[in-house]
Every structure is written in structure tokens, then in C-alpha cells.
Design brief:
By secondary structure, this protein is mainly alpha-helical. The chain is built from nine helices and six strands, in the order H-E-H-H-H-E-H-E-H-E-E-H-H-E-H.
Length: about 210
């Protein structure tokens, strides 16, 4: 899945993985879990993530290659948030070539900055149970409080407005070139990410059904 931050890659990748019975491999979720666990990888990645910049390619490649080669991914996988740079894409190509498992399809969820920025800055989560809320789409019953446990909601560091602006700038400078990279390989399909979630998912499924 390609697309800017806030385009809905995580939501669509999760739904697609369930639809095709594959595993959803989210680089962001994996990195955040490593950071929360204070693992060596998590400690190295934290400064980059908190600043809205990309984690170095070699760290992400090692982490994702391990997940791709794991038993849980043998029936297929949907990559979410990876690769994010041309060097990561080349490293992924080398990994998949070694495994004999080429990429079937790359879905680019195209969404404008003015659409995705509010999606990110309006997102809040419960530090106790992990429930996620949004100012516009799924607000809590009581402002600033979790519906289930009443804990004060928090905003992720990488969803702060200044960090979101940096994340979008990073996307345009380092990740957007992947669109042409995969277009040249004949595996790219672009869908309209400005539509509602259901319409985007229908387009994603149509693009996957069109493989071959």
C-alpha cells in the first residue's frame, strides 16, 4: 500500500488482508511495538519517529524481511507503510527475489494533503486500552475521555500538527517517487483516497482482482 500519511493505508490494508486471508504487515505498528517494548530497534527508531522523519532504511529492511520470512506470512502478506524509499524498495526486491515471491500488486491510495492532514491531527487514543477516536469521524461521548474506561485521551507524538506537516513533506520528498518506480514495473494501481472508506475498499479490491 502506497499513499500519504492519513490516506487510510492501515485501514485498507487490514481489510484487504482479511479479504484475501493474508497477514497484514504494518511497519508503523511494528515499529511502535518495538518502541513501547524498549527493544534495541525501538530505541534506535524512536528519535526518527518522534521527529516525523523516516527510520533509516537498514533498520526497516531488517525488521520487515524478518516478518516476510516468518511462518505467519507464508500464505501471503499485505505491506502497509513499507517500502517508503527507493532504497527500501530495492532491498525488498532483493529479499523477494531470493524467496521467489514477487510483488503481485502495488495499490497507491491518492489523497490530497488538505484531506489527510485533519485525519491525522484529529486522531486521539486511550493510553489504557488502546481505543482510537477522531474529532470528526468517531468522537468520544465525553470530550477528551475514553468511552470505556474514562481515561484522558492522548494524541500520538507523530500526529501533532507540526509533526504531521513534516511527515507530509517527507512523503513528497522520499516516498512519492515509489509511484513511478512501481508504475515502470507494471504492478501499480491508483485509487481515489478522497472517497469514503467503503468506496476506497471497493476500488482496492477491484485493483487486486485485476492482477494478471
Amino acid at each position: 500500500m502506497l499513499g500519504p500519511p492519513g490516506a487510510g493505508k492501515g485501514t485498507q490494508a487490514g481489510r484487504l488482508a482479511a479479504e484475501v486471508r493474508a497477514v497484514h504487515l504494518s511497519s508503523g505498528d511494528i515499529l511502535r511495538a518495538e518502541r513501547a517494548a524498549r527493544s534495541p530497534l525501538g530505541r534506535q527508531a524512536q528519535a526518527y519517529m518522534d521527529g516525523g522523519t523516516l527510520v533509516p532504511d537498514e533498520l526497516v529492511l531488517e525488521m520487515m524481511a524478518n516478518r516476510i520470512e516468518s511462518p505467519e506470512a507464508q500464505n501471503g502478506f499485505v505491506l502497509d507503510g513499507f517500502p517508503r524509499t527507493i532504497p527500501q524498495a530495492r532491498g525488498l526486491d532483493e529479499c523477494l527475489e531470493r524467496l521467489g515471491r514477487p510483488i503481485d500488486r502495488v495499490i497507491n491510495i491518492d489523497a490530497a494533503d488538505e484531506v489527510v492532514a485533519p485525519r491525522l491531527t484529529g486522531r486521539w487514543s486511550c493510553p489504557v486500552d488502546g481505543r482510537v477516536y477522531h474529532d470528526m469521524f468517531s468522537p468520544p461521548a465525553r470530550a477528551g475521555k475514553c468511552d470505556e474506561c474514562g481515561a484522558a485521551l492522548v494524541r500520538r507524538k507523530d500526529d501533532e500538527p507540526a509533526v504531521v506537516r513534516q511527515r507530509l513533506a517527507t512523503y513528497h520528498g522520499q516516498t512519492k517517487p515509489l509511484i513511478e518506480y512501481y508504475r515502470q514495473r507494471g504492478v501499480l494501481a491508483t485509487v481515489d483516497g478522497n472517497a469514503d472508506i467503503g468506496a476506497v475498499f471497493a476500488s482496492v479490491c477491484a485493483a487486486v482482482r485485476g492482477i494478471g
